[in-house]
């Protein structure tokens, strides 16, 4: 029988989410800079970036391995 260390699974999942969100954050940074340069509204971009920043913390609310696997950036 395989036993999973759930605390370790949470750590691995949080690290995976950080890696998945990195290119998305970089793209949003470019969009933000372009919006600033053109004087466009940046509120939506800021909100999207905050969701991505908060994503690894959502690991703490998971109680099953399935929930951890279903988290995506």
Task: Give a description of the structure.
The structure is a single chain. With 73 residues, the protein is mainly α. It has a domain at 23-53. It is built from three helices and no strands. It has helices at 6-38, 43-54, 65-70. The relative contact order is 0.19. The model has no long low-confidence stretch (mean pLDDT 96).
Distance between the termini: 31 Å
**Ranges with pLDDT <50 over ≥5 residues?**
none
Rg, nearest Å? 16 Å
Query: Proportion of β residues?
Result: under 5%
Q: Tell how many strands the DSSP assignment holds.
A: 0
Shape: elongated
- Kindly state the percentage of residues in helix: 55-70%
Q: Would you tell me the structural class of the helices and strands?
A: mainly alpha
The overall pLDDT, averaged over residues, is 96
Number of helices: 3
Order of helices and strands: HHH
Main sheet? none
Can you tag this structure with a few keywords?
73 residues; mainly alpha
Compact overview of the structure:
By secondary structure, the protein is mainly alpha-helical. Helix content is 70%, strand content 0%.
Give the SSE map.
Blueprint lengths: L5 H33 L4 H12 L10 H6 L3
Helix pairs in contact: 1-2
């Amino acid at each position: 029988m395989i036993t999973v260390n759930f605390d370790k699974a949470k750590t691995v999942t949080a690290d995976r989410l950080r890696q998945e969100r990195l290119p998305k954050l970089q793209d949003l940074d470019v969009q933000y800079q372009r919006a600033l340069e053109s004087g466009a509204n940046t509120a939506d971009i800021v909100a999207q970036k905050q969701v991505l920043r908060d994503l690894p913390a959502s690991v703490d609310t998971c109680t099953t391995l399935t929930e951890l696997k279903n988290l995506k950036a």
